[in-house]
Specification:
Layout: H1 12-19, H2 45-49, H3 55-61, E1 70-71, E2 74-75, H4 85-88, H5 91-99, E3 112-116, E4 121-128, E5 133-136, E6 142-145, E7 150-155, H6 171-181
Antiparallel strand pairs: 1-2, 3-4, 3-7, 4-5, 5-6
Helix pairs in contact: 3-6, 5-6
Length: about 180
């Protein structure tokens, strides 16, 4: 983050190239996009919240959440940590977050869409603007994207999280995750 600013005199660009960590001339960027969800066919968040969830089953199902979220000491630090979320929110709010994640995006987790000149997009969290852009995507993948490879950068305008249906979850599985998160 400081290589072109306060630390410019320390030769960080050369050190990054020499170590093989980053060379703007040879950097390969992997497109990562989050597909837009189709309209939900699940019951409403209120109806799902009224179901009796099984916390033990929810603990197993919630393993999919760990690809992007932390629950306790497990998971990836990409999306908001879920420890305490289920206890702090009413079940309907938790259900809405799972079935329609774009309804309320947590502050600081607004996504960016970087369109590459070679085609494709990188969706994720913008960790650093400038050259290179540093973007963290699903699963915690962090990429340094040279400015010369960027065609456009704009707000994604929706959540980076897949919806319940995109994750293959039905109403009962969402209720089970809610029950599990209420214990965390």
């Amino acid at each position: 983050n400081y290589k072109d600013g306060p630390w410019a005199s320390f030769g960080i660009d050369a050190a990054l190239k020499a170590s093989g960590l980053y060379d703007p001339e040879t950097a390969k960027v992997t497109p990562v996009s989050v597909p837009e969800p189709a309209p939900s066919q699940l019951p409403s968040a209120k109806e799902i919240a009224a179901l009796r969830g099984d916390a033990a089953k929810g603990a197993v199902t919630a393993q999919a959440c760990l690809l992007c979220h932390r629950i306790g000491d497990k998971g990836i630090d990409y999306g908001p940590a879920l420890t305490g979320f289920g206890k702090a929110q009413v079940p309907e709010v938790v259900a809405t977050a799972i079935i329609a994640p774009s309804t309320d995006i947590a502050h600081g987790y607004e996504g960016v869409a970087v369109t590459l000149k070679t085609g494709g997009e990188v969706h994720g969290l913008l960790l650093k603007a400038g050259d290179p852009l540093i973007v963290q995507s699903t699963g915690g993948l962090i990429q340094m994207i040279p400015a010369k490879q960027v065609r456009d950068r704009q707000s994604l305008g929706r959540s980076l999280m897949l919806s319940a249906e995109q994750l293959g979850l039905g109403a009962q599985e969402v209720a089970d995750i809610i029950a599990y998160l209420q214990t965390q």
